[in-house]
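thread: overnight batch results

M.L. [08:02]
morning all. the overnight job finished for the chain we discussed friday. pasting input first so we're all looking at the same thing
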Amino acid sequence: MSEDRRIAAYAERWRLSTGAEEQLAELVRLVAADQGAPTTVKEPRRILEDHVADSLVALELTDVDWQGQIADLGAGAGFPGLPLAIARPAAGVMLVESNTRKCEFLRAAIRGLGLRNVEVVRERAERWRDGIGACDVVVARALAALPVVAEYAAPLLRVGGALVAWRGRRDPLEERAAAIAAAELGLQPQDPVAVSPYPEALHRHLHVMVKVAPTPPRFPRRPGVARKHPLGGRPGTRG
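M.L. [08:03]
and the structure it wrote out:
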């Protein structure tokens, strides 16, 4: 199947807005052609499947407000943030990334795509004070263990907002630790959702945590603490 046909299939599957197909095609060209793009995936078909489709599959979570304020933590090459911004132009998307080189690529991509609903935040999630309590959705893909992602996201979410974390095969120990962390952070984990962004994708799951209560004011902790001393203990250890 050609890249254009794949993108057309994505537009039909996820009911993308007018002009989204052209912007997704341009996003693929940018990532494939830019040697500075922070991803090892450079072949157009793989970019479409491993990055674009894997990002857009989150739109199947119908209980998540994809029209509000979205923060993509550890945005890297812009996935899932850029495809979600293309798919939902009414949303505001903040790409939160601390690496300067990656931020330069993200800003160039935003200009090349002509996106007006996206901003780059060059900051660590723990230090992004303007984001506290400002987000309807926080997304994180290949960022950190679930308890750590939950701690990054919780202070940024409004009550009623949701964290969406991309994971592979389910890990009961990690999920148990994440549930303990969530209870301390004001989050409530939902049942993980198995997704199939493309036929060959295996063991893909989206983990959703809804913010049901205010996060205690001692969060966020200092940068690096969440990874070194994760809430709920490290997966595989006794709590």
